[in-house]
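tool_log.txt
---
The assistant was asked to compare two proteins side by side. It first ran the structure predictor on the initial sequence, then on the second. Raw inputs and outputs are pasted verbatim so the downstream comparison step can read them without reformatting.
(1)
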Amino acid sequence: MAINIYSCYAATSSGEVQLQQPYQSDQNYPNPFNPTSTIGYSIPKTSLVNIIVYDLYGKEIKVLVNEEKDPGHHEIVFDRKDFASGIYFYTLRTAGFSQSKKMIMMK
C-alpha cells in the first residue's frame, strides 16, 4: 500500500520556506447543537470567503460570511435563532475551493 503525502510551501521575502495550510472546512461543533454551533475553516491566502447555510431542499437560509479574509484559521458562530429543528448544510466557497458539511439542529 502506498501513502502519498502532499504539502504546500511558500517562500517569504527573507527566503524562508513556510508550510501553507490547505483550504479546509471543519465540521461544526457541537453537532447536533442547540442553540449555537461553531464552524471553523482555514485558508492559505487572502481570499473572498462565502459560508452559506442551506436547508434540506437546497434553499439558502443564511449567509454567515461574505467577505475577504486573511490567511489562517477562522471561526464563525451560527445562531439557530428563528430556525426549526432539522438537518442543514453549510458550504464554504472561495476561489477554486468549495466544500459542504451537514449539521443537525435539535431543540
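(2)
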Amino acid sequence: MKHFLSLILIATLNFVSNAQTGATIKVSGKYILGPCGDTLTLKGVNYAPYNWGNNSADLKMDQIALSNANSVRIVWYKNPSPALYGNLVYLDSALSKCVQKKMIPIVVLHDQTCQNSTSALIALSSWFTQPSMLTLINKYKHSLILNIANEALYVAWSSNTVTAQAAFTNTYTAIVNNLRTAGITVPLMIDGPECGTNLDVLANIGTTLQNNDPQKNLIFSAHAYWYSYANNDSTQMVAKINYALSKNIPFIFGEIANLQDDTVNCAFTLKYKALLRICKQKKIGWIAWSWDHDVCSARQMSTNSMFSSLSPYGSDLVSNSVYGLAATAVKSFYLQNNKSCVTTNINELNNELFFEIYPNPSNGYFTITSTEEISEIRITDLIGKEVVCEKNDDSRYSLISKNAGIYFVSIRTSDGKTAVKKLIIE
C-alpha cells in the first residue's frame, strides 16, 4: 500500500512545474480546460466596472465573488466616453481584483456592438496588440480570456447570407492571426452575428475558425436574446444547442438574461429559466447580464451593486438549486490553489496496458476492464482527495457525487502491479 500511494504522490510532484510553465486556459474539442487540466464550465456575470467608466471608485469584484461566480465578462471600450476606460491602469486593477477573488476575467470590447463593418472590427481588434495591452495580457495570461468584440457583424440579417458568412469567417480569421502574430496565446472568444444571437452560424463555421487559429484556442459565444431567434421556445432552444454540440466546438452563452430590449427597454420576457435548465443538463457555461447599472433595471442582478441587495432575478441566478451559481459554479483549480497545480497529468504512468476505462469522458458511470485480477481501485480528485466510487456490477462503476471534472483512477493488481489513469466526468 505504501508503494501504491507513493506512485500517486511522485506523479503529483512531477507535474507541478509542467502544468505552470507558460500556462493558459486551453480548449480541447468542446471542452475548456484550466491551466491544471481541469474542465472549466464558465458560469458568471457580465459587469461594466467603474459604472461604465464614470466612477473610478466603483469596482465591485468582491461583491460579485460572493455569488460564487467563477468568471466575469468585463465590458471595456477602445474609444471610451468618458475617458476612464482609456487608462489601462484601471483595467489592470479590475483584472487583479477579479483574479484575487478566484474568478476568470473575460475582457470584451463593446465599441462595435450590433454593427456590421468588417473594416471597423479589424481596426478595433488592434487595441489588443498595443504594447501596454500586450504587457497586461502576459501578466494575466494564466487565467485570461479575450472576447474580441461584443455582438459584431450580420449574416442572417444580410441580403446574401452565403457571402456574409464567408465575410464573417474571413474577418475573424484575419483578426485571430493578427493577434497570434503579436504573441497572444490566451483563448480568444468570438460572439455570434445578429447582435450575438446566431448560434447556428457559430456551429457552421466554428471548426473552420478553430482550424484557422495557429493556437487552436477559440471559444464561441452566443447571446440568448432568443425571443425571436428561437421563438422563446425551449424545444427550439434544445434543437439549436444540440446542433452546436454536434460540431464538437467549445461554446458558451456569453449573455443570458430575463428580459430583452427592442424599440424600448425590457420589451420582452425571456424564458431564461428553461434555458438554464438545458444548460445544466448539457453542461454548457453561461454568463448572466448583468450585475448592475443596466438600462433595464429589472435585468440587474443587484439593485445597488451589493450582494446583500440581490434582485429577484439575481437571487434566482445565485440560489436556484438546479442551475444557480452557488450550487453549480466550480472555480478554476489553478486559481483555487493560489496559482499552483498540486496534482498530476499522470501520463499513463506505469500502466503496462493492463487496464482501460470507458467511456472516458463519461457522465459518472464507466467501465473498468483489466487483463489481470484487480485487488484495489482508488479514485482521487485533483487535490488528491479520495472520492466515493460504487461498483454496480462486475466491471461497471460510478462516482457517487457525479461532479464534473478530472479524476485519477489508481489500480493495484493481485500480484502488486500499480497504474494510474485520468478519468474525465462531464
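---
observation on (2): The CA atoms of residues 354 and 372 lie 7 Å apart. Residues 1-21, 344-352 have pLDDT under 50 and may be disordered.
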